[in-house]
Amino acid sequence: MKLPRSLVLILLFAALPATLCAAWITDIVVMSSKGAGAVNFSHYTHLEAVGNNCPSCHNGIFHIRPEKNPVATMKDMAEGKSCGACHNGQKAFSVKEGCSSCHPTRDIVFKNADAGDITFSHEAHTGMFGCSECHPDLFLPGPGNQRRTMQEMEQGDSCGACHDGNAAFSVKEDCENCHQM
């Protein structure tokens, strides 16, 4: 069956804008985030979610030129600004939960020459608790946290806020649970 030339032209012109847009869109855009790790935003994932409708975000919520976008805090997003316009728990997962969906987590190694290095597992802890149970009250996301002594932890500072023998094993015992000896 041969398609009429006019139908072929209509199909080509209908597909042309999407094809041209896809050619210049960078899929992964890395957005810096003070302390919480860089956020890898995928255009392709989001385009699929909004039916390839670029104007659903550009130039309403986000400017097409990233340098023109205002900086948004997590509080701003929770109030519906920036990513929070869609990530509100109704259209998409809420910015108030599932932090690691956007912010990467990793194991953190604390060097300790005297008692053995300590590896903090985000995976183990986020499997039991939400990020907000530690961040930002107990620990700042990212670098900049003050080191605490074991005595300070035994008095409830830092890890000792939970590792008190009630909520979790005590920092006073079971040293090998944290320290690589």
Automatic annotation (TrEMBL):
Cytochrome c7-like domain mapped to chain residues: 39-103, 119-180
Keywords: Signal
InterPro entries in the record: Cyt_c7-like, Multihaem_cyt_sf, Nanowire_3heme
The keyword Cell wall biogenesis/degradation appears for this protein: no
Record flagged with keyword Signal: yes
Pfam annotation, one family: Cytochrome_C7
Membrane-spanning residues: none
N-terminal signal peptide: 1-22
PANTHER family: CYTOCHROME C7-LIKE DOMAIN-CONTAINING PROTEIN (PTHR39425:SF1), LIPOPROTEIN CYTOCHROME C (PTHR39425)
Protein name: C-type cytochrome
